[in-house]
Amino acid sequence: MATDNVILELRNVDAGYGEIEVLRNVSLRVEHGQIVTVIGANGAGKTTLLRTIFGLVKPSRGQILYEGADITGLPTLELLKRGIAFIPGGRSNFPQMTVQENLEMGAYIRKDKRQVMKDIDRLCERFEILRMKRHTPVGNLSGGQQQMVEFAIALMLKPKVLLIDEPTIGLAPLLVDEVFRVIEEINASGTTIVLVEQNARRALEASDYGFVLELGSIRYQGNAEQLKQSEEVYRAYLGER
Amino acid sequence: MPIEVVIFIEHIINGLTLGAFYALITLGLSLIFGVARLVNFAHGDIFMVGGYTLFLLLNLSGITLPYPLIVVLVVVVTALVGLLIERVVIHPILNRSWRVQAVATLGISIVLQNLALILFTSDPKQTPTIYSRQIIEIMDIRISVQRLIILVAVIFIFLALQWFVKHTQTGKAMRAVSQNREMCQIVGIDVPRIAMITFAISSGLAGLAAALMSPLFSVMPTMGSLLTLKALAAVILGGLGQVNGAFFAAFLLGLVEALFSGYVSYAYRDVVSFGLFVLILFVRPQGLFGRRVGL
Predict the structure, then answer these.
(1) Residues in A touching B188 (Cβ below 8 Å)
(2) Half-sphere exposure (Cβ direction) of B145: Cα atoms closer than 13 Å
């Protein structure tokens, strides 16, 4: 990888919760404009990796660099302002607020409220489901629809890097394709994506590059094609050929 | 009109006033619970601080302030007291266990009550206003103007609060915090700041209740303790976290108390309201307006 094109980099990062260390000596680089997937078994530390990048978990060792600047230990609010956004797994919205209000909360830190309203209009044009359910409480929407709202919440800040945790968990196969279509579309408009996904095969198909996390450390990495071809990765994470 | 009907209507009006008063206290308690996930056992004592503030403002030597101005001043003072308490005591324990929070807010309650005891002694203080003795009579029904003011003010405050949480950035953030605190961090909503604002608002509401209601009673250091428990009962009855539910449960409590003390026994009214509370929880553990959580 060329160094000059790297937007996000982790150098020898250890992180965890209190005494429990989850990530051990993780180093990785994400290039500008790519979709990068992190795969691994349950408990390998995939979610912790995203939370560490987003400042929700403080690393006990190592460095995190973003656009060439050291962001290790910076508060989440600062990272949001600099262009990193996070879509957590599970239901991450405000269930009793309408789609419109959820999007407004996504833009909470923005000061240009008039432009926010225009951006919401634009997102509603882009995603039909948002337009149809604009004034419905998000909790009344289906799982797939809620996932779309969660994407849209993150897009309100026009992030340069979007961290996405398990976006297809619990969704029907047809919706899984829809979610990946949206991820590719967001990427095509210039956002770098770091994706954690249990559906490893599908995720690698959409990605440029992949990392395999095992017991909190990077075990393999490579182009998505290389990973799919690797015998070991295949057996462990992608099932029988 | 037959005297029985007149008495009945008077009891209903008394009940509605009492309910409106409970509702004002309950709104604040419920807001704090919703936003900070914390039961503020000192909420009634902030009401008591409002009562003494009213007493002091009514007895300023030399000047007589107009009552509406006094009400505003009491609200401002209690909101500031709430803000101070939040900064000093609540803020450091926002993310601690409910045990720590219960002990801390009970501590505030004890400190405030004893401060009042030192400053004002345990003698009840009267805080009459020009409205508390004014009576209007419609078709033999006699209502004190003070009670009417309470009813109107509470309905106005309720509508204003509804507007606030639906249409302002801060109000929406308060709802967001009560629905998904983790997600607030992710979109950059400053949860401690929202909790602080909520504390100030709800303390101000307790102050408003004191400024409007104490002219009908008297002001004492312990006037808030039982009130905290009654408001808590209304919060639980309404369904935890359901601000509107708590508001209506407070009215229900007021009506039941007024009718019972009017027709049966004044001395046993607290037994009845807490008895009703236990009974309703027995039938509907999720509260009157709450939703079942879990399976």
Answers:
(1) 76-77, 80-81, 108-109
(2) 9
Q: How far is A163 from chain B (nearest CA, A)?
A: 11
Neighbouring residues of A200: CB distance < 8 A, sequence distance ≥ 6: A37, A39, A237, A238
R_g (Cα) of chain A, nearest Å: 18
Mutation pick from B185, B186, B194, B243 vs chain A, by most beta carbons of A within 10 Å, is B186
Name the residue facing A109 among B176, B182, B188 (closest C-beta). B188
Q: In 3-state terms, what secondary structure has residue B12?
A: helix
Nearest Cα to A167, choosing from A159, A157, A156, A181? A181
Phi, psi of A7 (to 5 degrees): -100, -30
DSSP annotation string for A161-188? EEEEE-TTTT--HHHHHHHHHHHHHHHH
Task: Round to whole Å and give the CA distance between A72 and A59.
Answer: 7
Cα B76 to Cα A212, B149, B251, distances in angstroms: 58, 19, 26
Q: Are B169 and B176 in contact (CB under 8 A)?
A: no
Q: Are B289 and B242 in contact (CB under 8 A)?
A: yes
Q: CA B43 to CA A209: how far, in whole Å?
A: 56
Q: B125: which strand partners? A: B219
Alpha carbon of B269: minimum distance to chain A alpha carbons (Å): 37
Using one digit for the tens of pLDDT, what is the confidence trace for A6-42?
899 899 888 888 878 888 888 999 999 999 999 888 8
CA distance A78 to chain B (A): 9
Q: What span, in angstroms and rounded, lies between the C-alpha atoms of B104 and B118?
A: 21
Three-state SS at B79: helix
Residue contact B169–A108, C-beta within 8 A: yes
Average pLDDT for residues B207-232, to the nearest whole number? 90
Angle (CA) B87 B93 B97, round 5°: 155
Helix (H, G, I), strand (E, B) or coil at A2: coil
Give B20-32 pLDDT, tens digit per residue: 999 999 999 989 9
Contact criterion met (CB < 8 Å) for B179 and A97? yes
DSSP per-residue string spanning B231-287:
HHHHHHHH-TT-HHHHHHHHHHHHHHHHHHHHHT-STTHHHHHHHHHHHHHHH-TT-
ipTM of the modeled complex: 0.86
DSSP state of A137: B
User: What's the whole-model pTM score?
Assistant: 0.85
Q: State both tokens at A154.
A: 């993150």
